[in-house]
């Protein structure tokens, strides 16, 4: 816990890829990602301060924000923007940055990378929470990004 168990501002990152550019794929993958983030970090909707979504330039069928509204995040400020079109970057990727209030220490926050986005942070792949909320398991190393591919 933080000093005195006080709630502090924390940031949680995550990303997921979709197979194709379609509203249903974008919203479904975004719901899956957000659900995994809040479950692994024991975050309730009232803990969420704001959320920033980015999508790669090849995703134009839908904004990811409506998926958060579908989860009941009705009073949370949401922002969608486009990633910088870096040559060779991971395609069809939705990234998210949640700002939350939490009494958990920064190093206890679990960032979530699903599907093809696991290559962005192979050090976090397959990390599922244990009973105390700490990550269990280790990355298998499968699907690691080449050394020159950006990871963030």
Topology diagram in text:
Layout: E1 8-17, H1 23-41, E2 48-55, H2 65-70, E3 78-82, E4 93-102, E5 112-113, E6 128-129, E7 135-136
Parallel strand pairs: 1-5, 2-3
Antiparallel strand pairs: 1-4, 2-4, 6-7
CATH superfamily: RutC-like
Beta percentage is: 25-35%
- Class by SSE composition: alpha/beta
Overall geometric form = globular
* CA-atom Rg in angstroms: 15 Å
Q: List unreliable stretches of 5+ residues.
A: 128-149
Mean pLDDT: 85
Instruction: For the largest sheet, list the strands in their spatial order.
Output: 3-2-4-1-5
| Largest sheet properties | 5 strands, mixed
- Briefly note the CATH topology name: 60s Ribosomal Protein L30, Chain: A
For this structure, the quaternary state is: single chain
Write down how many β-strands occur, each being a DSSP E stretch of 2 or more residues.
Answer: 7
Distance between the termini: 26 Å
Could you characterize what this model shows?
- The protein is α/β, with parallel strands linked by helices and 152 residues long.
- It has one domain: 60s Ribosomal Protein L30, Chain: A, CATH 3.30.1330.40.
- Helix content is 16%, strand content 26%.
- It is built from 2 helices and 7 strands.
- It has helices at residues 23-41, 65-70, and strands at 8-17, 48-55, 78-82, 93-102, 112-113, 128-129, 135-136.
- A 5-stranded mixed β-sheet has the order 3-2-4-1-5, covered by helices on one side.
- The radius of gyration is 15 Å and the shape is globular.
């Amino acid at each position: 816990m933080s000093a005195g168990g006080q709630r502090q501002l924390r940031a949680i990152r995550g990303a997921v890829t979709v197979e194709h550019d379609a509203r249903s794929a974008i919203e479904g993958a975004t719901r899956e990602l957000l659900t995994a983030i809040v479950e692994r970090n024991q975050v309730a909707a009232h803990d969420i301060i704001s959320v920033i979504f980015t999508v790669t330039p090849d995703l134009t069928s839908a904004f990811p924000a409506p998926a958060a509204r579908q989860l009941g995040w009705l009073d949370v400020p949401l922002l969608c923007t486009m990633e910088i079109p870096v040559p060779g970057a991971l395609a069809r990727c939705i990234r998210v940055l949640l700002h939350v209030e939490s009494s958990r220490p920064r190093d206890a926050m679990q960032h979530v990378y699903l599907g093809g986005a696991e290559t962005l942070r192979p050090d976090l792949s397959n990390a599922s929470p244990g009973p105390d909320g700490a990550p269990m398991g280790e990355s298998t190393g499968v699907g690691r990004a080449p050394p020159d591919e950006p990871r963030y």
